[in-house]
Structures are given as structure tokens and as C-alpha cells.
């Protein structure tokens, strides 16, 4: 397993070792021992699976408030996404900064998104399936988000007219969002 740190402290890009031959491939997509060796100590308690039928579906930018905040381990089983994380930890030297990554079924990359970051993605091809582990259950009363097109964030999405849920089309700007994460350096 190859681990790459990013400009956002705590966000980690993971390339699993893939064993392939004429039959296909095998890889360990998760090993608590290997992840722990790289500082990922989460106890994942739920797996989520989404299908986006069309290219251009944008989901996010989502997070849950404390004490129900979630860390996520994201990967793509079919298709491809542009995956974005935004630092929303008050006092962080990278507060409001974002970074984007291509995750696909062909590159088999995974992204670890710790608590304190908003997360979203847009599909690059039809029939994209995203799998992600979380370390906290969904909490409707703690569910929050930030507008995908907040001009202060300036996220360089690879699309202009995304397909959004009603909920995601009404998310506030970062300046108006409820946030209770504090950077602990």
C-alpha cells in the first residue's frame, strides 16, 4: 500500500497493492493493521454505496457536526469521480482550502477524509458507483453542507451545470454554514 499525504493535513490518498493477471485482479481495499500503520485509527462502523446513473451528478459538499462527525474512506467500484475535500476546521492554517482528486475503478485509488472536512464529488462517467466507509452513523439532525459553487472556495469542478439533489441545491455558503470543528494543531 502506498500512502500519499496531501496539502490538507489528515487527508490521505491511498494506492492499494493490486495483484492482476489474465483473470482480473485482487486487492485488499481495507486492512485495519495497514491503515493503523499509516495513522488511520478509525473504527469504521458502516459501509455506504451510491449509484449515479448520469455523468455530472454532484453530491456534496457534506459533513456532520460534532458529536456525530464522520471520517470517510472513499473508493469507486465502477466509473470515475472528481472527489473534493474542504478544510472546515476553525483556526486551521488551511481553513477554507480545498483539494480535488480523481478516483476511478481503473486507478483503484482511495481517499481518507477525516472529521473536520466537507466532502463532495461529481461523476465523470455514467453508471458510477461509489463505496465509502464511515466511523459514525448518519445523523439527520447533525447533517450539514456547503454550496458546491461557493465563490470564496473557488472549487474548479470539471462541470458547469451539475445534476443536484434538491437538498444540495439549497446548501449555504461557507460563511453562513454551521460549523463546530476546531483545529487542534
Automatic annotation (TrEMBL):
Pathway(s) annotated for this protein in UniProt: Carbohydrate biosynthesis; dTDP-L-rhamnose biosynthesis
GO CC, one annotated term: cytosol
Matches recorded under InterPro entries: RmlC-like (IPR000888), RmlC-like_jellyroll (IPR014710), RmlC_Cupin_sf (IPR011051)
Entry keyword annotation includes Isomerase: yes
Catalytic residues, chain numbering: 62, 132
Keywords: Isomerase
N-terminal signal peptide: none
Pfam families for this protein: dTDP_sugar_isom
EC number(s) from the headed UniProt entry: 5.1.3.13
Gene3D superfamilies, per database record: Jelly Rolls
A molecular function GO annotation: dTDP-4-dehydrorhamnose 3,5-epimerase activity
Site feature location: Participates in a stacking interaction with the thymidine ring of dTDP-4-oxo-6-deoxyglucose: 138
Keyword Magnesium: no
Biological processes annotated in GO: dTDP-rhamnose biosynthetic process; polysaccharide biosynthetic process
Role according to the record: Catalyzes the epimerization of the C3' and C5'positions of dTDP-6-deoxy-D-xylo-4-hexulose, forming dTDP-6-deoxy-L-lyxo-4-hexulose.
Family, as annotated: Belongs to the dTDP-4-dehydrorhamnose 3,5-epimerase family.
Subunit structure, interactors included: Homodimer.
Protein name: dTDP-4-dehydrorhamnose 3,5-epimerase
